[in-house]
Amino acid sequence: MQKIVIFDMDGTLIDSKKDMTISVNYVREHNHNLPPLSEKFIVDAINMHERNLAKLFYGTELYERRDKKLFEKHYKEQCIEHPYLYDGVADMLVTLKENGVKMSVATNAPTLFAQTMLEHLSVDKLFDLIIGADKVKASKPNPDMIHAILEYYQYESETDRAWMVGDNSKDIESAKNSGIEAIFAAWGFSANGTHTVVIKDPKEILDIVL
């Protein structure tokens, strides 16, 4: 029997809000001459189930190409300035690995940023796959990412077990849409989860999976 744990990244494995905020505000200032937004506003906006980030961040109905290009250019360098693993995450990941658990990352961030940040934090080699929104047709809550990861492992629902761990309703919904179990991580960007399984410390994952 395989045990597979799929992690969200931002707000679950790592705290990336400072650099994300800096890059969003860089685009606001340079492309739109707008004042800076707070970290809380940006995190709350990202975690909304239904939202138009282009409008919330830049005041445009659609995500303009120039904003996307400038953000990606700036964030490519900025994203490794201040991110950190949440307390207990590294130990939890190593323990899962030592116990033969298969691990991957499914993030709505671009794959390049995810790989860059996880490598910077020296945990990238613990994961078999790191999949961002650019690798699939539709991002979470669509199940495309999870399906791609499960296919990689040749997952069999009758014999294997798989979990999605995330701090967002989109993570939980993507797990349900994929037919796997879900764990809501309440230590990151979202302190309150309405899902059945809510944990407040990464080590609680060990009790569930192992």
Automatic annotation (TrEMBL):
Its EC number is 3.1.3.18. One of its GO terms (cellular component) is cytosol. It comes from Sulfurimonas paralvinellae. It holds the Pfam family HAD_2. GO terms for biological process: DNA repair. It catalyses: 2-phosphoglycolate + H2O = glycolate + phosphate. Keywords: Hydrolase. It is an enzyme of class 3 (hydrolase). Belongs to the HAD-like hydrolase superfamily. CbbY/CbbZ/Gph/YieH family. InterPro entries: HAD-like_hydrolase_sf, HAD-like_sf, HAD-SF_hydro_IA, HAD_2, HAD_sf, PGP-like_dom2. One of its GO terms (molecular function) is phosphoglycolate phosphatase activity. The keyword Nucleotide-binding does not apply. Pathway: Organic acid metabolism; glycolate biosynthesis; glycolate from 2-phosphoglycolate: step 1/1. This is phosphoglycolate phosphatase. The keyword Iron does not apply. It comes from the Bacteria.
